[in-house]
Write a structure and sequence with these properties.
340 residues, alpha/beta, Rossmann fold, two-stranded antiparallel sheet, 9 strands
């Protein structure tokens, strides 16, 4: 797809900063606070109940999860004190690891693009409160024009110069996830509305529709799995007076992410150019990486079957064979020549 582009849409985790270490290791620090306060409590019990609490809340991390765990009632009158310490410790560790793993040149690149009047958006499966907090820690508020994410139970921060929206709802309940192309369609629609080319009261489904592309189904997964539904969904424009303006928005957009499955197929499904962030996930501390992932799988509320299918999809032949339009080996700064 031709450059130059005027809209940059970014994945967040492992494209803007290295999230893998932050997530698991920060939770582990909070767990350590509880185990120190309750020395007779077994870690296995705590982690099992934490996973069940997250599943009950429908989240992969929520500070209120501690309040739902029977094993922590042993703290008695000290619960609130220990709870506050655990929450504070996780936030401190999250901030430390988030700030120190911002990819080299990322902030400078976005600053340069902003000066060129490029519109910058983030699409992430992080919950809104945690994601916007991370954006604030990184000092990217105002550089990023719009932040699209999962909803959260807690109200996200308000950042000057950056608006926040949640993913469109899914027909089967919950919210859409990558690689469903309505996530990119929402950005294109907002940008067209900002220019006054589409009425402000129209939604994504008023101007876009999706079709099922059987050729995109993954051979390695069951045909009826939720992952297959998202993988094989192709974005098309409805025949409206606004179709030409929306097509121009999609054509002027470059989407950058570190995953050929989640990000590459999202861009393909939406019909926009894909830049592969090959610089992502370059973690030198291999032992810390493995430990962080193990903790994430142990204590989150993720459905393990869906998680396994997603991992298999990422290793599929189709994902491996996907050819990015651009590859950025060492830094997002390599994308600068592609923008006006």
């Amino acid at each position: 797809m031709p450059a130059p582009f005027s809209i940059l849409t970014l994945d967040f985790h492992n494209t803007v900063y290295d999230e893998v270490l932050e997530y698991g290791l920060a939770i582990d620090d909070a767990i350590a606070v509880w185990l120190k306060a309750l020395p007779h409590l077994k870690r296995e019990t705590l982690c099992k109940e934490l996973s069940e609490a997250h599943r009950q809340l429908g989240s992969d991390w929520d500070e209120d999860a501690w309040r739902l765990m029977p094993c922590l009632k042993a703290a008695g009158d000290n619960f609130e004190t220990v709870y506050a310490c655990a929450v504070a410790r996780r936030r401190e560790k999250s901030k430390e690891l988030t700030v120190t793993t911002l990819y080299a040149g990322l902030r400078e690149t976005l600053t340069t693009l902003k000066k060129r009047k490029v519109r910058i958006y983030v699409i992430t499966e992080a919950a809104a409160d945690a994601g916007v907090l991370g954006l604030d820690w990184l000092g990217l508020g105002g550089l990023v024009d719009g932040f699209y994410s999962y909803p959260s139970r807690a109200e996200p921060l308000k950042l000057k110069g950056t608006y926040q929206k949640t993913f469109p709802p899914a027909m089967q309940g919950g919210h859409l996830k990558k690689p469903h192309p309505f996530l990119i369609a929402a950005v294109a629609l907002d940008e067209a509305q900002r220019h006054g080319r589409v009425p402000a009261d129209l939604g994504v489904e008023d101007v876009f529709r999706v079709i099922h592309e059987k050729a995109w189904l993954l051979d390695e997964l069951p045909p009826g799995s939720p992952v297959q539904r998202d993988v094989s969904t192709q974005l098309t424009l409805k025949q409206t007076p606004y179709a030409p303006a929306l097509k121009r928005m999609l054509d002027s957009m470059l989407y950058v992410g570190d995953s050929k499955f989640r990000d590459g197929m999202l861009a393909r499904n939406a019909g926009v150019a894909f830049g592969f962030a090959a610089y992502g996930k370059k973690i030198s501390e291999a032992a810390f990486h493995a430990r962080s992932l193990a903790i994430m799988y142990e204590v989150t509320g993720w459905e393990k079957e869906v998680l396994q299918l997603t991992q298999e999809a990422g290793k599929s032949r189709a994902a491996s064979a996907l050819k990015p339009d651009y590859i950025f080996q060492d830094s997002l700064a390599e994308a600068l020549p592609l923008f006006i």
